[in-house]
Amino acid sequence: MFHDAQRHAITQGIAGKTDGRDEAGCRGRKEQSGSTMSDLVLARIDSARLALEKAKSLQEIKHVGAMADAARVYAKQVGATTEVINHAGEIKLRSQRKLGACIAAAPKNAGARGVGKSGVPNRNPTLQEAGITKKQSSQAQAIASVPAKHFEAAIEEAKSTGELFPNRVAAGLIRKSHCSETQKHLDKSASSLPDTPTGKFDVLVIDPPWPMRTIDRDERPNQAGLNYQTLYVYEIEALDLVSRFSAPDVHVFLWVTHRFLPEAFKILTAWRLNYGFCMVWHKPGGFQPVGLPQFNCEFCLYARRGKPVFVSTKAFPVCFTAPRGKHSEKPEEFYDVIRRVTAGRRLDAFNRRKIEGFIGWGNESPK
User: Are 49 and 161 within one domain?
Assistant: First the structure.
C-alpha cells in the first residue's frame, strides 16, 4: 500500500518506489527523474515559443496553440512551478492573438488563384480546411482586436494573481473587444443621426430601423439587403427617444415586426413606459416561411408615460386593414386614426415620408 503523498507523487510521474528500504537511493532517483521531466517541460514550452515566432499559416499557428496546451497540461502533471505553467498558458494566448490577426488580414477566399506546378490550386485555405471553426475564428479575431497594451496588461494581471488560466483570460479579452465594438457602433449611430428637433412632443410614433434583412427567396432573388441603415437592438434602446423628446404626459407608438416583438417589450420597459395595447396592421398577403403560417401583419405597441388622454375613442380599433406601400412605409390609415384620437405636438421618428400633422425625424425623413 502507498501513502496518499506517495500515490500523488507516482501519479505526477516524479517519484519512484519509496517503501523505506532505500530511502536515500529513492530520493536520489526522484530528484533525477524530476530534473529530467522539468527539462522536458521546458523543452516543450521553448519549442512552442520558437514555433510561434516562425508560424505563418493558419494551420501552423493553430498547431502552436495545441502544442502550448499540451505543454501546459504536462507541466501541471509533473508538478512544475506556477511560473512554468503560466509560460505555457501565455504562449497559448499569444497563438490565439496571432491566429486572429492572421485571419483578419487574410483576403476573402474567392476560389483558386491559379494553379501551381504540382497542379494544386494557389489560394489561401478556408477556415474549414485549416480546421478552424467559425466560433474559434470569431474569438481569435476578438482577442487580436484588443489593443496591445490591454492584452499585455491582462496577461500580467492574471499572472500576478497566481496561475494564469488561458480560457479565462481569453474570455475577458473577448468581452473587452465586444464592449469596444459596442461603443463604436453607438458613436457611429449618434454621429449619423440628423439634427434633433426642438421642444417636447405629446405623441411619439417610432418606427426603428430594426437589424433585419429582407428575405432571400426564389420570388425575389435580387432582394438581398435593405436600402437604409439599420441599428442593433441595443442601439435602439440606447437612443431612448422618449427621454429625449417626450412631454411629461406622452403617447408612444412603437412599430415592430414578428421577429423583434420580444425585444420591443423589453425596450418599452427600459424606456420606463407603461404598456397599454397592441395595434395590428393586417396586410394583403405576405411572406410564408416553410412550415409556418403566412406573416401578413405588423405590430404597433402602444405605451405611455404620465397620464395622457385620447381626445376620442370612436372608430379606434386595435386591428385595421390597409394596403402595403414602399418597403417599411406605414399606411396613411394608421396616421388618420392617430391624428383623430390625439392632440398636441406629434413626432414621427424614422419616418420614410412626409406625414401631415407630424414633425419627421430620422435619416430618411423628407426634408
Answer: yes
Residue 329 region, left (φ>0) first, then alpha (ψ -120 to 50), else beta? Answer: beta
Asked if residue 119 is part of any domain, the answer here is no
C-alpha cell at 164: 494564469
340 and 238 both lie in a single domain: yes
Mean pLDDT of 76-81: 88
Burial of 166 (0-12, 13-18, 19+ CB in 10 A): buried
Q: For residue 200, tell me if it sits in a domain.
A: yes
pTM: 0.50
Whether 166 and 50 map to the same domain: the answer is yes
For residues 226 and 288, give the distance between their C-alpha atoms in angstroms, rounded to a whole number.
Answer: 19
Sign for the pseudo-dihedral over CA of 173, 179, 185, 190: negative
Q: How many CA atoms lie within 13 A of 365 on its CB side?
A: 22
* Strand extents, DSSP E, 273-345: 274-287, 295-305, 319-321
Instruction: Identify the domain containing residue 94 by its residue range.
Output: 4-108+127-180
Q: Estimate to the nearest angstrom the gap between the alpha carbon of 71 and the chain centroid.
A: 31
Matching residue, cell 506556477: 82
User: Quick one: 232 and 168 in the same domain?
Assistant: no
Check if the beta carbon of residue 52 is closer than 8 Å to that of residue 67: no
pLDDT of residue 179: 63
pLDDT digit string, tens, across residues 245-294: 999 999 999 999 999 999 999 999 999 999 999 999 999 888 888 888 98
Alpha-carbon distance of 22 to 31, in angstroms, equals: 14
Please indicate, yes or no, whether residues 39 and 166 belong to a single structural domain of this protein: yes
Q: Please count the structural domains in the chain.
A: 2
Pair 84, 207 in one domain: no
With 0-12 / 13-18 / 19 or more C-beta atoms within 10 angstroms meaning exposed / middle / buried, residue 10 is middle
